[in-house]
Design a protein that fits this description.
This protein has six helices and no strands. The chain is an all-alpha fold.
């Protein structure tokens, strides 16, 4: 579950970052010409990509218990576990999924940003 969620987040973050860097190359080159480092030049786009990757997790967390009853809670309730313990386990799982998604998105966007620049800090066309 965690790996699949992280993979989806990485795909969303990567796609968003690549498309925004390609469409805003002139702005990035302007930042570079004014003395910004490559990481500074793409920081805004990287932040937007990470935010986009986390939206599905945040949406899922906001409706749990109101719209849907997660499988972990349902299974534990049917087996006779205290409802508060079942909800605590579900919260732990949801935070684990969100954290894994965040870390994966951070690593993917960092790696992609490095691929867009050569060793002289010039923007490459991919």
């Amino acid at each position: 579950i965690v790996l699949g969620n992280a993979m989806n987040g990485a795909a969303i973050a990567g796609e968003r970052l690549v498309s925004t860097i390609n469409s805003n190359s002139i702005e990035i080159e302007t930042y570079l010409s004014l003395g910004a480092t490559p990481q500074q030049a793409v920081a805004k786009y990287r932040k937007d990509a990470i935010r986009a990757a986390l939206i599905p997790n945040l949406n899922q967390m906001s409706v749990i218990g109101i719209v849907t009853l997660p499988g972990i809670v349902t299974g534990q309730l049917l087996s006779g576990v205290n409802p508060l313990d079942a909800v605590a386990y579900q919260m732990l799982i949801m935070f684990l999924l969100a954290f894994a998604n965040l870390v994966t998105s951070l690593l993917v966007t960092y790696g992609l940003c490095r691929q867009f620049f050569n060793q002289d800090a010039q923007l490459k066309n991919l």
